[in-house]
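Data card: per-record layout.
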Amino acid sequence: MVEGRGASELPPCCRACELYEAEAGQCLLLVHPTPENRRHLLTMPCRVEALLERRFRSHGPDVARDALVSWLDPEWDPEALRASYGSAPLDARLWLTSWPYLYLGRNAVRRRYRDMREQPWSEPPDAPDAADDDPTIPGRVVTALDRLRTIDPIGYTMIVELMRGEFEPAAWRASLGVSDATVTDRKYLSIWRYSVLFFDVLLQLDPRQRTAVEARRFTRGDPSDGQALLVVRTALRKPAMTLAEARDLYRAGAAATLEVLARSDALGEESMDRFDGAFRRVLRIAEPSR
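The structure for this 290-residue chain is written out next.
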């Protein structure tokens, strides 16, 4: 079982399993998810049922059971199921990513909370309704979340909690030992990062600005301006670049991400009317001149 192991480390149940292909880095039962193989996976040492119970423990046993029923649904086309994994690991670590929530338990969770809460306006854009028309959207959600997890594990957890409606600022304040304002800023920085990744905004920036934004905001550990400068100098082959020049590139790139997010094919103007000020505050860029 994967409990107690880091998400980046192959679990011992996989290393010792005859159905795990080490060279390809994949579980044969997950790569070929026929109804028979899905049932067979429940008998394996990874203990999928227990992992689902742990994954949805905050929602109660009914949600975990619904997720298991969804996994075993014989009407689920194996090719479509396989495509839904996105970039998630094809081994027992799959059950610790966002994939089980998005594809097995999300509807059950929402049914449970439908009468208990309104969807918070700060919830990240996972586009659940649009997913009915665009089958690529759930995969993009998984990819964006997994990329965020490698950059900012705390921000990833915040986003998942926001999606589940479980985000509690007081709990984060106590956990991180920071002020309410700092928790709020971490939340908005996470929403911005997730949105940029979900809508592939970085690819739409000027290459030099993109390099500066990636070095400052999409590098694990939240590097300082000085640390980011070293990365930008190397990437752009500009050893004499000054800190002021790198900051200017970053500010221009960060501002450009907000312009892209305000487009109708991204968050849109209405959402950005709410987010723009918070995003600019956490990104430390000035308001646009009027």
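Known properties of this structure: Strands lie at 20-21, 26-27. Residues 1-7, 115-123, 126-133 have pLDDT under 50 and may be disordered.

See the next section for split statistics.
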